């Protein structure tokens, strides 16, 4: 039980702090002139709440009045969502009323017998894909055209690879007859086929962009901006986040919302910020940023926030949770990443595209990278902006309505997604089993399996994202993607997957498996050199031969093969610059600067390729050997790589490059010229990684008009807004920490109102709460585990009880009050709402009253 007789000085100190946080001078005078503190702390809370307080939780009744003192005019939020729960505690609902839909993913079949039995059952019950759209008219034509195009791609790739293999055979000393040479030849064919497929994709993309039209693809230019939206075409913008940079996330969200408001179609969209954050301080910052956004835009009825307490399946589980709770309220779902920004015109056009193409299940935009200032990121932005359109257009030319989905900046039709695209864990044990990491490719495959199209609107403007700021951050992201793609390859033979999406799984895994294959090819080539140099030539490799076989190298053919391979790799870049120069290169810094930037970026890519090769090889081996990964959110700021980080991450590579170069020089000095681009890049990986991460060098290149992109030359309005909001948010006072949320009167009241674990009363629950609060109040708050702090934040009763006892109990750990009471009133949420700007709609509340009954809402 709580001791209700608290020393008068502690109650007076509490009242002073509350008055210090009160916004109204009149309210401060009334508090200090009154006698609320005369009978102790418990009586003070009863006086504030104007009702008797429960003995175990006296601070609960004062939550609403404390909020009213801190946010008098306009109030913290309108009523609803600000109301009281069944227990009488003030509550601020952050989500709309529940509209639950029971959903469950279909388990993955383990073998052919299971698949055959399920197919037989569906045939007997008539439950086979009855949600697929009709397959006639335009859909049939594009599918036939797509099959024909992919057949042409297969012929071109295989034919070109066979010709290259024949040339490679003649380069080898024994013309590919020895076991070592056979292995080298096999690896060469695999790697060359990979390069060849990319070349033909980019080449066809060049012709597509040059031509400017394809009657078989979805064309965003055919949809007018002023076409009215169907009132039933409700769309949810969902932003899954986890321990992200809060100002960057909410600056992008606000810029997107303001751009959407400019279109006049704001009423057709709701925005959901879906958090999986497990850092208590970041979680508090998210709620404060959400409140500030809603107050400043008057958007409580349009912008919602939810933080899951049971975090399963990462991002895909977050989307599943949204679909179960509110999915049936919407016809479409538009997924954004933490670094995504989209213009209102782009959002409305995506909805209109969906309405105009009722057979489409997913329409993916081609986001443009922008916003970074590091030299490395600016080169990557330039590469994706200049070369990326060729590959995206070429990819869509071959795939048509069986394309990729990249997990963000895409619109999804809710009904088939909820019915067919929820992901079951992969069966089995080990690191390649369990929750699917790279969910996007699998969701696209399941959508296509159900009969719906997956398209890329590659010519739709207004979709933006950010690149990793440096090489190490990019590699940290690549490790997750590598592991996810290796897991996805287990679904290569899954039932009903379309051949194109089987190829997508294959290309996904080859994006990373090509690294160990290339590494093995180089190792075997070095071994062949050692055998040829140190061993005795075999003039009669087979018994009974009458004539000797003279081993010979053909350097002329080797040079020709190397030149042909380099042409396949670099010609798409040249074609990209030619296309830009022909269409107008002014926004890229001018034609000369574009060509110079392309040359410098290509040289830099050559330096990075061997570094990525070794890292990706390590990632593949770690995944195959059963090593799990630690899922961390990528960096969202322009961070430099330190020399210490570079040495720790690239030191072994430097030693490998030096030892490899020394060994090759010992065997055959002339062969070192061939290997110099590989070993040389490894030997200089440390300084390259450090200097390429520098923001100062990136800004110098920007002033020199190198690696310039249109988003830098003429930034779109939505990006300018995002930068402006980000600067403003970073200048704001910091949101309260966990300790301040426990101790400070107004910050604690806001935390109690936002807490989502609202339970009924029971003796067992109350006893457990008493134990937790007693343990927490006597502990140093800095030593409380993050999971326990989150549990305290999520339960309004726990948070209120802990608040009272930190103030009331003399035995409370002194660090609570030392860390929890700042000297300046910096803990309140900014924002004035519509009323302050002269807009109607937000009622005023008396300064010490609690809002009325709550509507039904969920946490």
UniProtKB/TrEMBL annotation:
This is Glucans biosynthesis glucosyltransferase H. It comes from Halomonas stenophila. It holds the Pfam family Glycos_transf_2. Involved in the biosynthesis of osmoregulated periplasmic glucans (OPGs). Residues 828-859 are annotated as: Disordered. It is found in: Cell inner membrane; Cell membrane. The lineage of its organism: Bacteria, Pseudomonadati, Pseudomonadota, Gammaproteobacteria, Oceanospirillales. One of its GO terms (biological process) is glucan biosynthetic process. The keyword Cell membrane applies. NCBIfam families: PRK05454.1-1, PRK05454.2-1, PRK05454.2-5. The keyword Cell membrane applies. Keywords: Cell inner membrane, Cell membrane, Glycosyltransferase, Membrane, Transferase, Transmembrane, Transmembrane helix. One of its GO terms (cellular component) is plasma membrane. Pathway: Glycan metabolism; osmoregulated periplasmic glucan (OPG) biosynthesis. Its EC number is 2.4.1.-. It is a multi-pass membrane protein. Residues 237-418 form the Glycosyltransferase 2-like domain. Belongs to the glycosyltransferase 2 family. OpgH subfamily. Its main location: membrane. One of its GO terms (molecular function) is hexosyltransferase activity. The chain crosses the membrane at residues 151-170, 182-207, 512-535, 555-582, 594-615, 671-691. It is an enzyme of class 2 (transferase).
